[in-house]
UniProtKB/TrEMBL annotation:
Cellular component aspect of the GO annotation: membrane
Keyword Transmembrane helix carried by entry: yes
Keywords: Membrane, Transmembrane, Transmembrane helix
TM helices/strands, residue ranges: 50-71, 78-103, 109-131, 143-159, 171-191, 211-233, 239-260, 343-361, 367-390, 411-432, 438-457, 469-492, 516-539
Cellular localisation: Membrane
Protein's membrane topology: Multi-pass membrane protein
Nodulin-like domain: residues covered: 13-260
Annotated InterPro entries: MFS_trans_sf, NFD4_C, Nodulin-like
Major subcellular location class: membrane
One Pfam family per UniProt: Nodulin-like
The name this protein goes by in its record: Nodulin-like domain-containing protein
SUPFAM superfamilies: MFS general substrate transporter
Length: 562
């Protein structure tokens, strides 16, 4: 084993995954827009259409990840975290000035750019931890994607707990927390998020560790939903609110128990022939090892450099083109992936499923009020938990499908698109009695599509340029949000004019099913199209999964280069 490399199953990758959990929770701050959207609407004096465009700014920034996708092969993950932290300070800091009133009235376009920059910090943070951990655990991509994206889904519930229990429902205080708190988390975790030598052999202890992490996240999710509901039933004293926050923090540290257990109780599992040379050194392995990121990043840079050299040589006629195009399941270059029909089918399915779902999230406060509810935080917490459950469950269930039934992960997307057809029709009724059921179903379906897209794209097109490919497909989210939010805001404002034709105040709300009824019917129709496209995609990529998982476990395909 080369110097600086980590042994399969060693503790540093698990420390990196534990740190990534905190980064993902902190970096999911863009999901809190509903908590401060009303205060922002009042501070800027805008209508629902313009407020919807501010929500789109969050979606655009959160998914504009091509640049971090390109740089993740050239820069250490810590550098990406620092860039994300800087974007967070500038973006949320400017938004805080607008809401708090400490600065002169800021123009609308500046707040739009600030929100876009603030949300873009999530793209930098997410790319840094997701790409690093997917490469550190290549045999457990579904579990890694489900856990990390699951904690992003819990982010809104974590911030809601802090918002209601500690910050006394103050939007300005929440924005100040985001301005300062997210960068602090990045600085504290950046050392641990680093590339390590991956394990390429199935490991039963690794599966047990992932199961523990999944159970820990489920306990946290249930705890957050329970305490949020309790906060709205009983008026808790400040001491109880702080105690709830302390317990929540301890639950967020649950994944750290894995490397801690590996240190205190080292495993003596049977080693394969590749590990036997390291058996005598097992007891001397330190809790933290020197990072191998330097050599890994250098290799990736050398790959890109060699590609450029070969292209130049081919142009001069010095080298014949001998490289064949990769097959699905092998490592693709970004431009090669763009030529595949499966790439665009996956993009379209993600655009419809997530783009329509995020429209509901951005307008959730107004949807809840239109249905007759007064408090929007319970619905936001419910969506956050179900979104988390969908992301976590999507990774675990899709992993079971591919290993036990050799079914593509997108078979699960087909099911979620069908459920979304009826969920949007439930929303269209505008009834308070069906509101929470609709929010829960949408949260689960929304979350499943996130984790499935990540794992599917890595399996179809490889991990070599996964950062670019994943972030490009993610742009389906803001594109969908832009189109569907524009429709939702336009219909909402028309209905407001009908209901408040004699009122000139911009701080008015719409009530009844007509506020979003037509919008939800359109989204239901789009879900029908998404169902059809996801079926086509599943049928097309079935042979790929038979090749990758035909033996019951993931098999690394041969290189695409001769």
């Amino acid at each position: 084993m080369r110097a600086g490399a980590m042994k399969a199953g060693s503790r540093p990758p698990w420390l990196g995954l534990s740190a990534a959990v905190w980064v993902q929770v902190a970096g999911g701050a863009s999901s809190t827009f509903a908590l401060y959207s009303h205060a922002l609407k009042v501070a800027l004096g805008v209508d629902q259409s313009r407020l919807a465009m501010l929500a789109v700014a969050c979606d655009v920034g959160d998914n504009l990840g091509l640049l971090p996708g390109v740089l993740c092969n050239r820069l250490h993950p810590a550098v990406l975290l620092l860039i994300g932290a800087a974007a967070c300070v500038l973006g949320y800091g400017t938004t805080w000035l607008a809401v708090s009133g400490l600065a002169p009235a800021l123009p609308y376009w500046l707040v739009w750019l600030a929100l876009c920059l603030a949300a873009n910090s999530g793209a930098w943070l997410g790319t840094a931890v997701l790409v690093t951990n997917m490469r550190n655990f290549p045999l457990s991509r579904g579990a890694v994607a489900g856990i990390l994206k699951g904690y992003v889904g819990l982010s809104a519930a974590v911030y809601t707990e802090i918002y209601t229990g500690v910050l006394n429902d103050s939007a300005a205080s929440l924005l100040l927390l985001l301005t300062l708190g997210v960068p602090v988390v990045c600085l504290l975790t950046m050392y641990f998020v680093r590339p390590c030598e991956p394990s390429l052999a199935p490991n039963s202890s690794e599966r047990a560790h992932f199961l523990f992490a999944q159970i820990g996240s489920i306990v946290l999710g249930l705890y957050l939903v329970g305490t949020t509901i309790l906060n709205h039933i009983v008026a808790l004293a400040d001491a109880w609110n702080y105690l709830i926050l302390v317990v929540m923090t301890l639950l967020l540290f649950a994944p750290v128990a894995i490397p801690l257990k590996m240190t205190l109780f080292p495993s003596n599992h049977t080693k394969g022939p590749l590990d036997s040379s390291d058996a005598d050194n097992e007891h001397t392995e330190p809790f933290l090892l020197p990072s191998s990121s330097g050599s890994k990043l250098t290799n990736l840079e050398d790959d890109d450099a060699s590609d450029i050299d070969i292209l130049l040589a081919e142009g001069e006629g010095a080298v014949k083109q001998t490289r064949r195009r990769p097959h699905r399941g092998e490592d693709f270059r970004f431009r090669e992936a763009l030529l595949k029909a499966d790439f665009w089918l996956l993009f379209a399915v993600y655009f419809i499923g997530v783009g329509s779902g995020v429209t509901v999230v951005n307008n959730l406060a107004q949807v809840v009020i239109a249905a007759g509810a007064v408090d929007t935080t319970i619905s936001l917490s419910l969506f956050s938990f179900c979104n988390f459950f969908g992301r976590l469950g999507g990774g675990a269930i899709s992993e079971y499908l591919v290993r036990s039934w050799i079914l593509p992960r997108t078979a699960l997307v087909v099911c979620t698109q069908v459920v979304m057809i009826f969920t949007y029709l439930l929303f269209a009724l505008g009834l308070y009695s069906t509101l929470h059921v609709s929010v829960a179903l949408l949260g689960i379906c929304f979350g499943i599509q996130f984790s499935v897209m990540i794992s599917t794209s890595s399996e179809l097109f490889g991990l070599k340029q996964f950062g670019k490919i994943y972030n490009f497909i993610s742009m389906g989210n803001p594109i969908g949000a832009l189109l569907f939010n524009s429709l939702a805001g336009y219909i909402y404002d028309l209905e407001v004019q009908k209901q408040h034709s004699t009122t000139t105040d911009s701080d008015v709300a719409c009530y009844g099913p007509n506020c979003f009824g037509f919008t939800f019917c359109v989204l239901s129709g789009m879900a029908c199209l998404g169902t059809l496209l996801s079926i086509v995609l599943t049928v097309r990529i079935r042979p790929v999964y038979q090749m990758l998982y035909g033996g019951g476990s993931f098999s690394v395909p041969r290189s695409s280069a001769h």
